[in-house]
């Protein structure tokens, strides 16, 4: 019985590690690449979209993100792992500040803090 619980805890932690460290970063990178790609598009020409390397790379990374999340969800609980995806919003906000020079005001900082606290609160009770 104890061995089964230990295996389940290990699987849950593996899922969390993949969801937090890898998939949120991959998701954020995909969104940044899609933004870069769309900034280069003057009109919605299908050929121009299909040959837009940053845009295509962004969608490919988004596919990788989906595969990573499938694996993470298989390892852990949906109610713990799924809220972690919201951490990608934080990565996108931080990257947008540095890459696109988006503004970062106190409302965005409060939002980021709220997301971090929310994920911590949702995840805490399930991990213990």
Topology:
Elements: H1 2-39, H2 46-50, H3 53-75, H4 78-84, H5 87-99, H6 106-127
Account of the 3D structure:
- This protein has helices at 2-39, 46-50, 53-75, 78-84, 87-99, 106-127.
- It is 84% helix and 0% strand.
- Helix 1 (2-39) packs parallel to helix 4 (78-84) and helix 1 (2-39) packs parallel to helix 5 (87-99).
- The longest helix has 38 residues, at 2-39.
- It has one domain.
- It is flat, with a radius of gyration of 17 Å.
- The chain is mainly α.
What's the helix-strand series?
A: HHHHHH
Structural class: mainly alpha
Question: Count of helices?
Answer: 6
* Oligomeric composition of the shown chains: single chain
Any idea what the shape is?
flat
Distance between the termini: 18 Å
Helical content stands at: over 70%
| Low-pLDDT regions | none
Radius of gyration: 17 Å
Q: Provide the number of structural domains.
A: 1
Instruction: Kindly report the average pLDDT value.
Output: 83
Question: What labels would you give this structure?
Answer:
single chain; flat; 6 helices; mainly alpha; 128 residues
Q: What is this entry, summarized?
A:
The chain is mainly alpha-helical. The protein has helices at residues 2-39, 46-50, 53-75, 78-84, 87-99, 106-127. 22% of the residues are buried.
